[in-house]
Predict the structure of UPF0173 metal-dependent hydrolase ACFQJC_09895.
Amino acid sequence: MELTWHGHSTWYVTVGDTSLLIDPFFDNPFTSLDPSDVETPDYVLLTHGHADHIAHAGEFEGATVVGTPELVGYVGDEMGVEETIGMNIGGTVELGDAYVSMVRADHTNGINTGYEFDAGVPGGYMISDAKPTQNSDEESTTFYHAGDTGLMTDMREIFGAYYEPDAAALPVGDHYTMGPWQGAVAADWLNVDHVFPMHYDTFPPIEIDIDDFEKEVKAAGSSAEVHVLDGDESFTLE
């Protein structure tokens, strides 16, 4: 599984022959790319409807956009997206070589700063190369994109215990989401081998000292390896 961070919460994930782009927002300081520079993915996954997560969702002609029914209805009507898949919390859909499960995130979900539309519930995604079951599968590889969220016990009781992610991308910018210490506790609860900070240093309210996150992960007693990626940098998850 290939993971590429394009800044903020934007990730390009390849599972086998299937490509997925999560929360496309290229107007951030970590990337030098425009949407047109990015290879069109098979699927675009949206965690929620805030502008810094859906800004470029309509710019990948031929891609299928996945999200809550309310949100994909919006991008279909307002952004001209022709192919969509609506799903919801707890559901798993098979997308090519990937199994994608939508999981809970604690956040808000209005669209645009005026909150003119309700986009349903916010979520995160578990992306795996095997169908999730309640039986442990040591051969599978799973990446957790948390979306925008606060710390919640589901990370310990459900996500870590049953989805068994190998790696997690966690928001750590504070103010709107978890900060470094809460993200560190999340990494511990998830019991992941690899953790990637995201959703920080994009705007003034979420500017942090990213070194604090690595310190907090150690303080939490997590054995996760912290990877602070540069924008547009890739990591191979095996």
User: Anything to note?
Assistant: The domain at 2-130+141-164 is CATH 3.60.15.10 (Metallo-beta-lactamase; Chain A). Helices lie at 51-54, 69-79, 154-163, 180-190, 211-219. The mean pLDDT is 96.
